[in-house]
Write a structure and sequence with these properties.
Order of helices and strands: HEHHHEEEEEHE
Strand content: 15-25%
Low-confidence stretches: 1-32, 170-192
Keywords: Signal
Shape: globular
Mean pLDDT: 81
Largest sheet: 7 strands, mixed
Number of helices: 5
Protein name: Lipoprotein
Structural class: alpha+beta
Distance between the termini: 61 Å
Radius of gyration: 26 Å
Organism: Nocardia uniformis
């Protein structure tokens, strides 16, 4: 090869190398992970505000599960269990329970306002734990066909019992009065303010549990009465339905759920 050809070959090689080094980097691969859960439209205009009895830690692992399950039930009733919180549809396995709560007759309804919930107690069992909660619907309405219906809670309030059964191995060997070891549940940081819209955990908090929901007739408890009186001192003796043309005010959720993704 003569010198002219050699110089030409080297020049071509340098041009190719320069082009390779200055080529724009390729775009990063698309994120193929599962998108974060977002509450369905049926509940986005509503929120939940939680409180607890003295001695009950609203933010510990068990109470976090209680809050998630109770909220997930509200979503499942309105939008179906398949659109409720991640893992909830798989955690509720009893056919009778599913038939009671997940009927399609409650669909095509949208929630507005703020639902108040309160944890009365959390009691360990040999296979998990049981929690009793109270509910107050004073400022929570269901909208259908442009009409807002609020099932105003009576003085005794509404109570709900939720039992959590651990799916971890050797759960039957757990000592009496203790909760079997399960996957830890991250507790959210309380929010002092935020958007007045439904918040939800983005990940599956129920993967180590089976959830047993008490029948709907487990709904009145005098233990809820003192709590109801603090929020609605003029509550009627018996529950009643109030119909209006306008939705109730929606307050920011408490404690809400953190954004993780």
């Amino acid at each position: 090869m003569n010198r002219t050809c050699l110089r030409t070959a080297w020049a071509s090689a340098i041009l190719l190398l320069t082009a390779a080094c200055t080529t724009s980097p390729s775009a990063p691969p698309a994120d193929t992970g599962t998108p974060a859960y977002r509450p369905p439209e049926e509940v986005r205009n509503a929120t939940v505000i939680w409180s607890a009895e003295p001695g009950v830690d609203l933010f510990d692992s068990n109470s976090t599960l209680v809050r998630a399950a109770a909220e997930a039930l509200e979503v499942a009733i309105l939008a179906g269990p398949e659109d409720s919180y991640p893992g909830f549809n798989d955690a509720v396995t009893d056919p009778t329970t599913r038939d009671l709560y997940f009927r399609r007759s409650t669909r095509d309804t949208t929630a507005y306002g703020t639902l108040y919930k309160h944890i009365l107690d959390v009691t360990p069992t040999s296979t998990g734990f049981t929690a009793r909660t109270c509910e107050l619907f004073k400022a929570f309405a269901y909208q259908r066909d442009g009409i807002y219906n609020t099932s105003r809670t009576g003085r005794l309030g509404n109570s709900k019992t939720i039992t959590f059964i651990s799916n971890t191995p050797l759960q039957s060997e757990a000592p009496s009065g203790t909760t079997p070891a399960t996957t830890p549940v991250a507790t959210p940081t309380p929010r002092t303010s935020g958007p007045a819209e439904w918040q939800a955990p983005e990940d599956n908090l129920f993967q180590s549990w089976t959830i047993d929901l008490a029948a709907p007739d487990d709904y009145r408890s005098e233990r809820c009465a003192p709590w109801v009186a603090t929020l609605d001192p003029d509550a009627p003796a018996e529950g009643e339905t109030v119909t209006t043309d306008n939705p109730p005010q929606t307050l920011p959720a408490y404690p809400g759920w953190p954004k993780l993704h």
